[in-house]
């Protein structure tokens, strides 16, 4: 069975083609600058040279057509014909309360995704464009939606409700939803497999630390708490996002600093986080370098980031009344031994003990805790695409 996984952003599109018998990637790539001057596709296929195609792409439909042409290209593509694609899996950011799991897309599902546009105005529209483009180009091929929010639908009401008038939730859907669900679910499953115990018996804290960052408490295989909320802005300090702040700051910016709502929104999402604190970069590699060169704001940015991660891990251990496993994943979690060490050095009270040598690992699955550590600590590279492909194969096959 061959599954195409598509992740559409506003001006980009990532794809991976899977052979599900082997769970192997047959090809993958990225289309950038859709609808902007300089559109291009970068495509790679194991055992073949990387291909770059630069040509104007006005829409997601044109981008998907180019992806399909490349996948079936006699030299660059692994497929002979479009018909070899058995199903398409789409990453959809916001499923709201309508979706607690992945679903086969039909007109009713499309309506529900469209109803959630208000909740994710930047993300759901390009996801919808991707689905509609595939339906036009490959009619009859089953499509499955895999939601970033679905895994967190198991959060109890007392965890997802905000301390706001209840009507805001009932009438406007204002509650905590959580994101990165596919990633948290994937690494939690892998962690259970690595310790050889059923997921149902484990308390796992999964730390997805990338440009966007979130932490989830996974108890008995279910998300019971997660750090992102109504939008992916809540929680940790991130690359350019503020994470938790006193909401009164926003009122202050509007009333006393003369900022517009759009300016506040842009500041909180694009100009804050470690980038905002440091004034240097959102990338931890740049921050580490700047710190070495004596930049104290870069050092402050990283310290406050680690501090918040430590706070959330402590909170989630409290929520679950303990933790068996802590997982680090995503760009920073997978690659930075410094980040993992900075976080874990404050977790001795939980029974966390890191092996310095094992912690040197980069970008591959590994246990980094000592044999005597009460809490097992793992680095597990996330694989949201594989998770989407698995759900798609299961749902489309059924
Ligand atoms: P996203 O998918 O949210 O854009 P990623 O998961 O790709 O982000 O993570 C990107 C971030 O990971 C970078 O901004 C950088 O801070 C961090 N990162 C990646 N590699 C390293 C590394 N070797 N050392 C330190 N940080 C790294």
Strand content: 15-25%
End-to-end separation? 13 Å
- Which kinds of small molecule does this entry bind, naming each only once? adenosine-5'-diphosphate
| Overall spatial form | globular
Radius of gyration: 21 Å
By CATH, the superfamily of the largest domain comes out as ATPase, nucleotide binding domain
Oligomer kind: single chain
By CATH reckoning, the class of the largest domain would read Alpha Beta
Strands side by side in the biggest sheet: 5-4-3-2-1-6-8-7
List low-confidence stretches: none
Brief sketch in words of this structure:
The chain is of the alpha/beta class.
Report what the structure shows.
- The chain has 398 residues and is an alpha/beta fold.
- The protein folds into 2 domains: 2-147, 2-Layer Sandwich (Nucleotidyltransferase, domain 5); 197-379, ATPase, nucleotide binding domain (Nucleotidyltransferase, domain 5, 2-Layer Sandwich).
- Helix content is 37%, strand content 19%.
- It contains 14 helices and 14 strands.
- The chain has helices at 60-71, 107-115, 124-137, 157-160, 166-172, 181-195, 248-255, 261-270, 273-278, 284-292, 296-320, 330-335, 337-344, 384-397; strands at 2-8, 13-19, 24-32, 40-44, 51-54, 87-92, 103-104, 143-147, 203-209, 213-219, 222-226, 325-329, 366-367, 376-379.
- The strands form 2 sheets. Strands 5-4-3-2-1-6-8-7 form an 8-stranded mixed beta sheet, sandwiched between helices. Strands 11-10-9-12-14-13 form a 6-stranded mixed beta sheet, with helices on both faces.
- Helix 11 crosses helix 13 (337-344).
- The two termini are 13 Å apart.
- Residues 210-212, 239, 282-285, 330-332, 335-336 line the site of adenosine-5'-diphosphate.
């Amino acid at each position: 069975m061959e599954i195409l996984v598509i992740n559409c952003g506003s001006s980009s599109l990532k794809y991976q083609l899977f052979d599900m018998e082997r769970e192997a990637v047959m090809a993958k790539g990225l289309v950038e600058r859709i609808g902007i001057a300089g559109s291009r596709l970068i495509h790679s296929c194991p055992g073949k040279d990387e291909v770059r195609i630069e040509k104007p792409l006005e829409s997601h439909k044109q981008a998907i057509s180019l992806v399909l042409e490349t996948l079936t290209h006699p030299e660059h593509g692994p497929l002979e014909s479009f018909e070899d694609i058995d199903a398409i899996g789409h990453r959809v950011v916001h499923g709201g309360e309508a979706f607690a799991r992945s679903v086969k897309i039909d007109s009713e599902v499309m309506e529900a995704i469209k109803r959630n546009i208000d909740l994710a105005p930047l993300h759901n529209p390009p996801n919808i464009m991707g689905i509609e483009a595939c339906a036009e180009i490959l009619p009859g091929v089953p499509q499955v939606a895999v939601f970033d929010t679905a895994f967190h639908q198991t959060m109890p009401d007392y965890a997802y409700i905000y301390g706001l008038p209840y009507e805001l939730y009932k009438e406007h859907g204002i509650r905590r939803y959580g994101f990165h669900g596919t990633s948290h679910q994937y690494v939690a499953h892998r962690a259970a497999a690595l310790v050889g115990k059923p997921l149902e018996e484990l308390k796992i804290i999964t730390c997805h630390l990338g440009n966007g960052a979130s932490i989830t408490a996974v108890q008995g295989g279910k998300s019971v708490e997660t750090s992102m909320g109504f939008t992916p802005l809540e929680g940790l300090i991130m690359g350019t996002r503020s994470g938790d702040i006193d909401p009164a700051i926003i009122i202050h910016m509007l009333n006393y600093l003369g900022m517009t709502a759009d300016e506040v929104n842009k500041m909180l999402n694009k100009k804050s986080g470690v980038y905002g604190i440091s004034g240097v970069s959102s990338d931890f590699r740049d921050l580490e370098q700047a710190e070495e060169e004596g930049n104290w704001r870069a050092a402050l940015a990283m310290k406050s980031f680690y501090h918040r991660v430590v706070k959330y891990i402590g909170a989630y251990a409290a929520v679950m009344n303990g933790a068996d496993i802590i997982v680090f994943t995503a760009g920073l979690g997978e690659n930075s031994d410094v980040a993992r060490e900075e976080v874990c050095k404050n977790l001795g009270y939980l029974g966390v003990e890191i092996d310095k040598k094992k912690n040197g690992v980069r970008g591959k699955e590994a246990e980094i805790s000592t044999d005597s550590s009460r809490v097992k600590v793992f680095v597990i590279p996330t694989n949201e695409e594989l998770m989407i492909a698995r759900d798609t194969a299961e749902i489309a096959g059924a």
